[in-house]
Design a protein that fits this description.
By secondary structure, the chain is of the alpha/beta class. Helix content is 21%, strand content 27%. It contains eight helices and 26 strands. Strands 9, 11, 12, 13, 14, 15, 17, 19, 21, 23 and 25 form an eleven-stranded parallel sheet that branches. A six-stranded mixed sheet has the order 2-1-3-7-8-26, covered by helices on one side. The termini are far apart.
């Protein structure tokens, strides 16, 4: 009986192992198929990501080419390639459009203003409310056009568009008047004063903008890869200029001036534009022959204390000429807003430091009693020092004392301590000696160096580096003198004032 039951159970269980094996096999097969499918999805996602990233990078390359070529100092500056491509001394008008074209090859026709073309700029209508076919357009080739660099394909953007920005194009009511102005170009003013009377950099709507403001541009790029992937990206940018305009060849705004002029007969200070002989000329620039005072200072209303202190410290009055004044040419002047107060000057130094070619040292914290460090011409970029008859204009901020030694340089030099030079020192451009304690401009010995451009000396901080409420005392002392005078030169002043960079105010990707 027991034997029969055992056999019965075995018959009932027959084939179970096979079913389990089949089930496990199906389960393993399902997992394997899922892994294969997932692997395919990952490969597809990775491919899409690569395409998206490549298109994004190509679009960004177009934006950066435009941003670089908007700078006059660029070797590929637009106006060097196509004169007048970007207006100089006037804004790019609303309705004006500039395009950089970058075809992949000769057969790749890029026509962003032609309705129905492969790369037609339909986005323009979204921003301006009118078709780009009605805009006044000019075009220029990309530096990468036709992959001219041997063996290296360029970035795959098709075009980059540059337009003036308006409230309407940015969809922002900047002045909050309830209307988005479509006809007045926007400007960016780093010295803007808000409704509360506080300095606040801002976009402004102004048909006649202040001198400190720069036009705002929209820079838009379209990138298209061979597989059809597209990206459209946009910068909102503005040129950063320093608004360094001087009322005299040597400007000494101060609460009190101590002045000791050079005894050497060849030494001159001349406010007549171009009266000197720069060791390096600005290509293509001709001085305007405007005549400014040789030395400008600031006196309290009704006072001539500083002016008289300067005149009494000049051994050879006939050597200080300019401005239509009798000699010595010394006058009370009014520096512009950028140069008018400790707060404005210190803000300017911060702005320039962010865009300088080199910054030496760090500003000491307010309340510090540590002496300023000292630097020399060997700390400057070598390209800024004259070699033969050439040098490259640059910008250096020295947070400390500086000794130029028997060297000549080019560009914008800011010294926040004492500035010392030798008889054979010289400079083409602008020197600002502004900062802590009593700012000093000290000349040592005779020589034949020459300063062409403008020099500005002002004290903005006390001896413990706290910002002064008003400009402090200045000491200008030249011993010896030789022939190394100071000569106003608008070519070099304007060279220094050229935009050194374009500030990106905004960036976004436009959905396609």
């Amino acid at each position: 009986m027991k034997s029969h039951n055992i056999l019965s159970r075995k018959r009932q269980e027959a084939g179970v192992a096979l079913l389990i094996s089949i089930f496990v096999l199906l389960l393993v097969s399902g997992v394997a198929l899922a892994l294969v499918a997932n692997s395919g999805s990952e490969s597809s996602l990775a491919g899409n990501f690569r395409s998206s990233t490549s298109a994004y990078d190509a679009g960004a390359a177009g934006l950066e080419e435009a941003r670089g070529r908007l700078l006059p100092g660029s070797s590929n500056y637009f106006n060097t390639t196509v004169p007048g491509f970007i207006p100089v001394g006037a804004p790019l008008a609303v309705g004006q459009v500039r395009y950089i074209l970058n075809p992949l090859n000769a057969a790749d026709v890029v026509a962003p203003t032609t309705l129905g073309s492969t790369y037609f700029d339909s986005e323009y209508q979204q921003e301006w409310g009118t078709s780009v076919t009605g805009a006044v357009a000019q075009t220029i080739n990309s530096v990468w056009a036709n992959s001219a660099v041997a063996g290296m394909p360029g970035p795959l953007y098709k075009w980059v568009r540059i337009t003036p920005a308006t409230e309407k194009s940015l969809n922002i009511d900047v002045n909050q008047d309830g209307t988005k102005d479509a006809v007045t170009p926007l400007y960016y003013d780093p010295n803007h004063i808000d409704a509360g009377g506080n300095p606040r950099a801002s976009l402004i709507v102004n048909a006649v903008p202040p001198a400190s403001a720069s036009q705002v541009f929209e820079v838009t790029s379209l990138a298209v890869l061979p597989n059809g992937s597209k990206k459209m990206e946009q910068y909102v940018v503005t040129p950063i200029t320093y608004n360094l305009n001087f009322p005299s060849a040597l400007t000494l705004p101060a609460s009190n001036v101590t002045f000791s002029g050079a005894h050497s007969n060849p030494y001159n200070v001349n406010g007549t534009d171009g009266s000197g002989t720069p060791s390096v000329a600005v290509p293509g620039c001709v001085a305007t022959a405007t005549s400014l005072p040789a030395i400008g200072t600031t006196d309290a209303t009704g006072s001539t204390t500083n002016k008289q202190a300067i005149i009494s410290g000049i051994p050879r009055p006939g050597n200080y000429t300019g401005g239509g004044l009798s000699t010595p040419s010394v006058a009370d002047v009014t520096p512009n807003a950028t140069l008018s107060s400790p707060a404005a000057l210190n803000q300017m130094v911060q702005t320039i430091s962010q865009n300088a070619d080199a910054v030496l040292g760090t500003p000491p914290p307010p309340g510090s009693t540590n002496p300023l460090p000292s630097y020399s011409a060997s700390n400057l970029p070598s390209s800024m020092l004259v070699n033969g008859s050439t040098c490259t204009s640059g910008t250096v901020v020295v947070n400390g004392n500086f000794d130029l030694g028997p060297n000549t340089g080019c560009g914008l030099l800011i010294v926040t301590g004492n500035f010392t030079y030798a008889g054979n020192s010289g400079w083409n451009g602008v020197i600002l000696v502004i900062g802590s304690g009593t700012a000093q401009f000290l000349g040592n010995g005779g020589g034949n160096g020459q300063f062409d451009g403008a020099i500005f000396v002002a004290a903005t901080e006390d001896s413990t580096y706290h910002q002064l409420p008003a400009l402090g005392a200045v000491n200008f002392d030249i011993s010896g003198g030789g022939g190394n005078g100071i000569y106003y030169n608008s070519c070099w002043v304007n060279k220094v004032n050229q935009a050194q960079t374009l500030k990106a105010l905004a960036f976004h990707e436009i959905a396609q």
